[in-house]
Amino acid sequence: MSRKPRDKRMSIDEVIGSLESGMTIGIGGWGPRRKPMALVRALYNSDLTDLTIVSWGGADVGLLARAGKIRRLVYAFVSLDSVPLEPNFQRARQAAPESGLAIPEIVELDEGMFQTGLKAAAERLPFLPMRAGLGSDVLVNNPWITTVTSPYDEGHGHEELVAVPALRLDAALVHLNRADPHGNASYLGPDPYFDDLFAMAADRTYVSVEQVVDTAGLTVDTPVQRLLLSRMMVTGVVETPNGAHFSTCTPDYERDERFQRAYAAAASGSDEDWQAFHDRFLAGDEASYQAAVQAFTEETTK
C-alpha cells in the first residue's frame, strides 16, 4: 500500500455527480469575492433540486435561485458590491409565494450569528451563545432560534444570550488560488474569508483552484500561514482556471465589472433578456462559458 497522500483531483462533473438533491451545501467566499463559480455554474445546470444553501451570498445564490434549486436559504446578505442587491436574489425574495419564483424558506441572520453558527458546526456543538441578535427582529423572524441563560453570575445577574444553532453542512464548495493534488490549499489575496470554517462545518469539502501545484510549490511565493485548508479537510480538488469569474480572485484577477453589469442587466430585465444571457453564457459546460466570456471581453473592449 502506498504511503503517499491520496491524489484527490476530480473533474467538475465528478464533484456535482457526488452531490444529491435535498443536501445542505455551504458556498465559501464573500459576496462577489472568490466564489467557486465554476462549481456553482455546474450546479445551476444540474438535475439537483430541493437544496439548502448556506452562503454569504453573491451571484452563487442569485444563479441557484433563478434556476429554482433552493428550497431553503440561510444567509447574512446577498450582494454584488457595486450592485448592492443581487438582482436574481431580489427577484426571488420579492416574488409572491404562489408565483413559483420565490425561495420557499428563508433564514436571514446577523453576520456575526452566521459566523457563530459555522463555528458551532465546526466544533461539533449544537449551538454557541452570543449577544448578537438580542433585541433585534432576527429572533422575531426566526422564532425557532431561542435564548439560553448563562449559568455564571459575573456581578450583574445571569445573562440571557442567543443560542445560535450550528450550521451543519453536508458539503462545502470553496475556491482558492492554489492547491496541491492532495487537498492542501492556499489563498494569495488579502482575505481568507471563512472558507476554513465552511470546510470544518462540512462532512465533505470540494475546493476548486486556479492552479494545482506540487506541495513544495504552495509556499514558493507566499508565507506558510496562507495555507488555509489542510488535506484532512478536503474531499476533492478541481483545477478551474478563471473558475471564480466574475467574482474576484486576487491576485490572479479582479472582479469583471463589465461582465457583472451585463449579468445584472439581464437578471433585472425581462424573461427574454435572461434567456438570452443563459443561452449565450450558461447553457454549456465550463469550457463553453470561458470561451463566451473571452468573446464578450473582446467585443466590449474594442
Task: Give the helix/strand layout.
Elements: H1 12-17, E1 24-27, H2 37-44, E2 51-57, H3 59-66, E3 70-78, H4 87-94, E4 105-108, H5 111-122, E5 127-130, H6 137-141, E6 147-153, E7 158-165, E8 169-179, E9 185-186, H7 195-201, E10 202-212, E11 227-229, E12 236-239, H8 257-268, H9 271-282, H10 286-300
Parallel strand pairs: 1-2, 1-8, 2-3, 3-4, 8-10, 10-12
Antiparallel strand pairs: 5-7, 6-7, 8-9, 9-11
Helix pairs in contact: 2-3, 3-4, 5-7, 8-9
Any descriptors?
10 helices; three-stranded antiparallel beta sheet; 31% helix; 302 residues; nine-stranded mixed beta sheet
Low-confidence sequence ranges: none
- Which of globular, elongated, flat, extended, rod-shaped describes the shape? globular
Main sheet record = 9 strands, mixed
Count of helical regions: 10
Radius of gyration: 20 Å
Provide the helix percentage: 25-40%
The average pLDDT value, as a whole number, equals 96
Number of strands: 12
Run of helices and strands:
HEHEHEHEHEHEEEEHEEEHHH
Query: Cα distance, first to last residue?
Result: 57 Å
% residues in beta strands: 15-25%
Q: Structural class per helix/strand content? A: alpha/beta
